[in-house]
């Protein structure tokens, strides 16, 4: 071969053959992968030798230096590098978007084989290796069996999962006889849960106002009064009333008498609870021979409805509504630009409280099966829920469990179950939410009886063994603040506001304020999930496109559980997978806080504050740096076509709600003035400057008139320069006129005259979220505190004042603490309004607010003014008479008991950086005061693993002293404290500063050898201020804003999130009209179990 290869021709042919052979071999992907692996391994072995590695790097460096001496090459390299970087970032973010859309395209569809609940994929693990007797054979996505993390944890611990079939947690099968419509179910139910339920504007979602009143019903007489000799297809119109003499009905519907009788007969025959209630039916009822007219007139109060009188009554109501509304009703008002909002009616004429049979000559059968009966408490009546909803429970009590399961856990299980009967029953969701709220209020009553200001006294266990003495001791009145952990209540949001203030103090002012709304009817992925969950159908994109608005609304209305869960899931994934991704679409987020608010149409949206790493702050950075930063992330261009077709995005259209005090001024600030570039403008007060004979106010008026004249539908092509020519003014005059209209510094985005109605947005987030959003740069701490914090922490209008009045009423009356707390709780329950999705949030305990930091309150009051939490009386009474261990252990006692190694930690650092736990098994008797006082929203089980606030640190520093374990945190908590005023109470102020920022072991050490706290503070002033600076930023501005916050008018909120508020106000107006048409309703006292309204007085007080 050596001789042959000396022939050049042969050698060339051999090379060609080898090249063709290798080309053919390398066409196979398996060979290529193997070859790459071999080459990679070979090069790694070579580079392991330091000499080879250094020589290779040197040769590469010399080669690149030689190439870069060519200027043309250097320019090409720079262009290529920039293009590659931009392309890689764009394509990568597009990939990220697709991954996010793919993630949220799958809903809670994974069935746990142990508890039969529906979960998201990250909340389940494969059950292939799970061998249990009670697991089901059902397969969910990916044709596998899954087990939820909760059940899996119990199984691996050798325990029975409480919600599994092994613990007898099952649902009865629904027989064909119980497939009833809503009113048919009411006629056979032994309990009537009276509620005010009505449809909300835009979307037909349901809401409930007030409390649930549980009244026994007489099924025997109701069934007896039904018309006879009817087959299953025949229907009759029925009005369901509280009392037959009332004109107003609770609900009206067509019912099938034969179906009602068959259902009642099945329940009487098969239901354990119906048998215990002693219900009997006349079994010969279907065979009774009577004429139809005889049937209808013998037993029933038949309303012959006069259409003329109804028309007159409706006209009077409409006149009253028009006279009372603040908005001008003219249909031809040029101000209103919103035409056919969502292309569908608001639902104001179709409520659960409005009779539907209004045609002349119609005969409606009136039933009032609960008339004359006494209301029963929801906890007094053990099986009230099972008897109120026989189509859900089939007349059977819930199964008795071997392992005790709390009612709140049972509610979650029922709503998340693969059998969607509970998730689709909106009245039952409201029932559960109210029952849970009542239970929470009763717990607050119990908790309020365990709080006491000791006022320097030492109490012993003996003091609590005399019942009369206990009543004298337990007298702390916290008013409505006791409800600060009652989710959704005004004190709850007031506490959230304080926590957010503390977060701003400790972290500095946030960078962005953002809002994100839901767009259920526009979210194709959600409609597909609902199709699979409710109808077991796989909708295609074309199916969704061809759906009517009514069909989409029906899907959304039918399963508020899936809708709310998926919004919560989407928010979590959007923040973690998109906003906090390495692409940083709004900058590197290091901290955030958000709350969930429910719009007037019943859907959730979030308001969010985000802190961005290295973001320029207005005041400390230059205006140019701030403007450059904002321009990088925020736009107000016309929405991109890629998303404009799927949602009505950022463009504002005037509606009646826009009018500010009936003037021709948009309360949301539109149209926004065009500016040639992004700029920060400050107020100008010199209104005497003239342009010829015109003053600045005249110029501003001319600008406003011109902008107001540019209608939304106009195809505006005018440039900014052309606009100035039309206005006959220079750019300086134009800017000065805009400044004259300001009362505070304001950032204006670059915008052309064609974009004066476009709200600000972030393009990557808008395209990814596919629903309306707001985004604003936070200019200064005062504005942030005054408007944004106030907006984020707002509650239902008027509810806070209502609870404050209730507190005053309770204090003025001769009531004990227990009665006062219950009185305030009654006010809240009887007036609060819940949408169906909000009720789901409450029942499933999904987070209504979330932050990247935890919060801790340090009670810096003197010991005699400090509220302590006493142990439960049953534990105190077991103590020796002379024992003083009657209090739960709080933060200050834990600090005093810290290990020696933490001796130099001040109280603020200790509270911020350490978690303290006890090695004893947790029980109500040993529970810490801080755990009760700082209790907050628990994370949902489905998201607890992935969205925990503090990641577990296996290598965290831990110290143990007795039964206490001190664990160092990865991220500091946000601390709150009393914040005494230096001018009003100087000694308490100085004591507080020393207590927080100077180490001490006993509280008596704080004063040390000094005669006053001020003297000791002065001796340590520099040290204290240095430490305080770690926890206090912009303190003066925040204090000033806090003092002014109580006087903040809600109209100022319109400037914070104009997109969200604009839609919300339109829905609010429509809902107010609906409420006036429905008329007044009664309220119910959960403690006394009676109505407070002249029309509802047939339910007599139970003594």
TrEMBL record:
Feature: compositional bias, Polar residues: 311-320
Region of interest: Disordered: 311-334, 925-952, 1047-1089
Pfam families: DUF6570 (PF20209), Helitron_like_N (PF14214)
Domain Helitron helicase-like per the UniProt entry, residue ranges: 426-609
Acidic residues bias spans: 321-334, 928-940
Residue intervals of the DUF6570 domain: 158-276
Comp. bias (Basic and acidic residues): 1062-1079
InterPro entries listed in its UniProt record: DUF6570, Helitron_helicase-like, PIF1_helicase
Top-level taxonomic group: Eukaryota
Full protein name: ATP-dependent DNA helicase
Species this protein is from: Holothuria leucospilota (Black long sea cucumber)
